[in-house]
Amino acid sequence: MLKNLSPLSWALLMLLVFLSRAEASDNLRTAAVPALAVLSDGKTGVVHYIVIQISTDPQSDGPVIQFSEINFGGGSLVGDDWKAGVKQAVLTALRHLGENGRDWVITIKNRSYNSMTDGMSASGAVAVGIMAAWRGEPVRPEVAMTGQIAPDGTIIAVGSIPQKVEAAAREHFKKVLVPRGQLQIAEWDLATLAATRHITVVEVNTLEEAYQTMAGAQR
């Protein structure tokens, strides 16, 4: 029966499990963010979910980053670029939060149907998730994001965005955040695609812009 759950249902189930554990410990902060990717064929977009857990350890010389990789079908890996993107997301989020993170222990759990997830296009979403987890603020379930995070907090251009928007539409997301300047380029016109698929595409330039749209207090 569990195999028939949608990716969104899986993410919510996973988050409920982790949050229930968090209730037993004041030292655990948790968030889950949807991220957009493409399969190795370069044509098929997919949605996967990243669960972020932050605990503190006074003995840690951190930030310490741990990766837990699970594929719903069994056996998942994340590549070196993906891990490098997460590490950059952690450092950038720390700067925006005004924290040094020396006592942080961060566990990143990638929940994916893919046997391998790579690239840095999820790093912007991870940075948003880290900030949301630390602040104890919700991540809006109807918003997904693609974009690479830079050290200064800029959201950098990524590829295959039409395929990612299609995936978000299939999973009934209402809004997709993309790097500024990528709404309409020579390769694609996201405005037309968004109108066809009944989804809103929003350009964001910085981590703060992404956070205000994807997380934080409801406006």
Helix-strand blueprint:
Layout: H1 7-22, E1 28-38, E2 45-56, E3 64-71, E4 77-78, H2 80-97, E5 104-112, E6 116-117, H3 123-135, E7 143-145, E8 148-149, E9 155-156, H4 161-170, E10 175-179, E11 184-185, E12 188-189, H5 190-197, E13 200-204, H6 207-214
Parallel strand pairs: 3-5, 4-6, 7-10, 10-13
Antiparallel strand pairs: 1-2, 2-5, 8-9, 11-12
Helix pairs in contact: 2-3, 3-6, 4-5
Can you walk through the features of this model?
This protein is of the alpha/beta class. The chain has a single domain (2-214), classed as Ribosomal Protein S5, domain 2, CATH 3.30.230.10. The chain is built from six helices and 13 strands. The chain has helices spanning 7-22, 80-97, 123-135, 161-170, 190-197, 207-214, and strands spanning 28-38, 45-56, 64-71, 77-78, 104-112, 116-117, 143-145, 148-149, 155-156, 175-179, 184-185, 188-189, 200-204. It has a four-stranded mixed β-sheet with strand order 1-2-5-3, sandwiched between helices. A three-stranded parallel β-sheet has the order 7-10-13, sandwiched between helices. A two-stranded parallel ribbon has the order 4-6. Strand 8 (148-149) and strand 9 (155-156) form a beta hairpin. The longest helix has 18 residues, at 80-97. The chain is globular. The protein starts with 6 loop residues before the first helix and ends in a 5-residue tail after the last helix. Residues 1-5 and 19-24 have low confidence and may be disordered.
